[in-house]
Amino acid sequence: MSTGFASWLGLLAVGLAAGIFLTLAAIRAFGTVHRLGKDTAVLQLPLRTSLEVRWLRDPDGLYIYEAEEVLDKITRLSRLLDFQWLLPYAKKYRISYIGLKDSASGYWKPGSLACSTLDFSPQGGYKVFLNPGLSLEETARRLSQELGVELQPAEVHKYLFLHEIGHTSEAGNICFISAAINSALSGGRRTHRRRKELQLLRQQVEKYADQFAVAELLKHRNRRGIP
Predict the structure, then answer these.
(1) Distance (Å, rounded) from C-alpha 73 to C-alpha 129?
(2) Whose CA is closest to 132, among 115, 116, 114?
(3) What was the pLDDT predicted at 53?
(4) Distance of alpha carbon 141 from its chain centroid, rounded?
(5) How far, in Å, CA of 61 to CA of 213, rounded?
(6) Where are the domains of the chain?
(7) Which of 70, 77, 71 is nearest to 158 (CA)?
(8) CB neighbour list of residue 201: distance below 8 Å, 6 or more residues apart
């Protein structure tokens, strides 16, 4: 190998190493990582550049920091609902996320019990949000009067979770998507007729959700031998 060619290879290696070093330094200094899911992240770089990154995992392994975070969230949710009871419903009706803060504002307004939204992440489905600060006795009394079915304080969050599932098309509520689309398309410019149509749609959505939740709750009671 000639001396000139060896020198050229040496310079090329140094240049590549310097380029890699500078690139990594720039990413570290200016890049921002946004997690999209457990196996996917987006690396946001300067000049409006982004890079989606996926990584392979050992299916038998578990990151400790993730385990601690998940266990903490399960503990908090379990104060409201039996997590083992919740999971089959979540899988069957495509509930992808359960949160404890209002989806729109991050805090619960007086009188707000629960809410749900479409999940626009790649996995899709629905997000359900439950208010952890409710007075269970007062809420059970209020719901019992509205539904005509006696609700126990311990059943409040169970009923609310089922009610939010009852909004979904997976549960057979064909009016939910129509109401959401019509509300979004009409914006703030709604005629009297449009407002009445939306009000009727929402009433149908809520009526179906109530019926679904009560029916499922009664099934659960029967399985446990509770009248």
Answers:
(1) 13
(2) 114
(3) 58
(4) 29
(5) 38
(6) 64-223
(7) 77
(8) 175, 178, 179, 182
Structure tokens at 4: 């000139």
- Cα distance between residue 64 and residue 69, in whole Å: 9
What is the pLDDT, as a whole number, of residue 66? 77
Q: 31, 45 in Cβ contact below 8 A?
A: yes
Minimal CA–CA distance to 159: which of 113, 100, 214, 78? 214
72's tokens = 């903490």
Length of the chain equals 227
Segments of the chain with pLDDT less than 70: 1-14, 18-59, 103-105, 175-194, 197, 226-227
Question: Letter for the amino acid at 169?
Answer: S
What SS3 class is residue 96? strand
Residues 6 or more apart in contact with residue 156 via CB below 8 angstroms? 134, 136, 139, 140, 143
- Token pair 């990413």 in the structure block, residue: 27
Strand partners, 85: none
Token pair, residue 109, equals 């307004």
Q: What is the pLDDT of residue 105?
A: 67
Q: In one letter, which amino acid is 191?
A: T
For the entire predicted model, the pTM comes to 0.68
Model pLDDT, residue 136? 94
State the DSSP code for 159: H
- The closest of 41, 42, 128 to 87, measured between CA atoms, is 128
pLDDT at 222: 85
* 224 to 144, 195, 221: CA distances (angstroms): 20, 43, 5
131 three-state secondary structure: coil
Contact 139, 156 (CB under 8 A): yes
